[in-house]
Amino acid sequence: MSKGIVVVGAGFSGAVIARQLAEAGLCVTVTESRDHVGGNCHTSRDAHSGILLHNHGPHIFHTGDRQVWDYVNRFAVFQPYRHAVRTTVAENVYSLPVNLQTINQFFGTAMRSDEARDFIASQSIDIPNPTNFEEAALASIGPALYEAFFRGYTLKQWGCPPTDIPAAVFRRLPLRFNYDDSYFDHPYIGMPENGYTALIETVLDHPLIHLHLNQHMSKADLASYDHAFWTGPLDGFFEHQFGRLGYRSLRFDEFRERGDWLGCAVMNFGDEAVPYTRITEHKHLAPWERHDASVLYAETAIDCGPNDVPYYPTRRLDQRDLLVRYVEAAEATIKKTFVGRLGTYRYIDMDVTIREAMDTAAAYLSAKSDGTRPPVFSVHPL
Ligand code: UDP
How close is the Cα of 276 to the center of ligand 1, in Å? Predict the structure, then answer.
């Protein structure tokens, strides 16, 4: 007997797909291998201080997509939040992304906007079609800023030379010729008042959704369902039969202080000699709360072994053939859709994840009513 629809994984992708299908009248089983929902956006209250912890590193909700913003606001109260990041390099603290303050402080100048624009243009290297992170950086900001703010951090973050990383990763950060120090350019930015796990619990709170925590699902377990949405790692679905796709994992070293220790929510560390990439002071991610205590995480990127949590698909240029094999294997499956950051092996933010999950649910419903094949991927990985 068919068991209906199953969604594997209760992060943003899985929760939004389940909700959209349930609201269309379908019965959905959601399984989650962890003992909580939220995936790598999971937040929890620290038992001693009550501080809201971003257990898998800082997550700031930001989007330019009005529908996505309205969607998340259905399920949680969002508090206004402004994300400003600093970076420590050679015992100086700078604003990040690189803005006019960063440029003037770094070069010991007092340039106006147009002067700085010309100056940076004179520093940049003429690379017509940058193919990797390093080329994109050199073409945009030139060697001095690249060496100081990006090379060391990127080596630590990705564990390989920046020439092996896609150029798109560099382009995540804007370059500004003004004093705007906001980390994101998006018009809608905020934080769910009670954290992401509470938000995702509310998304999943629907009479047609049946959630099962602590349940591992394998490919074989999915055979008896009408359709399965897989939000885990793409290669994990195939039990790594062709080898392991590269992911970076993270190690969080927690320490406790009192008062305001860091002075901001996130401090990056650009120097290669400092082993961690950034420190997060969690209470500053919820500035509407007051706490004397403070909980901080020093975050170190590590290679993702079989027992580590995958966070970042590395998409190393030399792993493309392996990715192609998994994509072809996925395309040969039936009644499966691969979704989200891990399911499509793409470095996407929360808002994009939600948009793609909404669109995937809609595509599934229309394929079902037309009698056509639902999409294999929410967005094609290649
Ligand atoms: N990056 C860097 N120096 C920094 C911050 C970021 O070199 O101080 C690079 C690094 O390669 C990183 C990428 O820019 O992976 C994107 O940064 P973002 O802050 O978007 O990363 P996330 O918060 O998703 O880890």
Answer: 13
